[in-house]
TrEMBL record:
Disulfide bonds join C108-C120, C110-C127, C129-C138. It holds the Pfam family EGF_laminin. SUPFAM superfamilies: EGF/Laminin (SSF57196). The keyword Repeat applies. One of its GO terms (cellular component) is extracellular region. This is Laminin EGF-like domain-containing protein.
Amino acid sequence: DKEGKLVCDCKHNTEGPECDRCKPFHYDRPWQRATAREANECLACNCNLHARRCRFNMELYKLSGRKSGGVCLNCRHNTAGRHCHYCKEGFYRDVSKSISDRKACRACDCHPVGAAGKTCNQTTGQCPCKDGVTGLTCNRCAKGFQ
């Protein structure tokens, strides 16, 4: 460095003066010192391209059989969940798009008068209609109603 001190050339998504911590967003498993047999590489969190930050959770890591402990923070594009893998309330999943697509979640758009709520089915987008109302967004009178 500038002061003439030796600086480590960190590998395996690590950082710090002694490469003793994982780089930001590489918190899917805990930092461990590398051995001759195992690099113990820090792994990126799986946020499906909807978050820029994550944190490590030891309890989830243990529950997953020591496979994954990353928790995504501040999911964007109307997504939610540990991996930003489902749509937040008021949105449903557009199955024609990959979950990593920015437009994977579409607004429910439930009709303010015909719907019994603003939350729709996460897979179909069907809004809960009041009696005598039909349609995906509850915007039409059912047969026999006017």
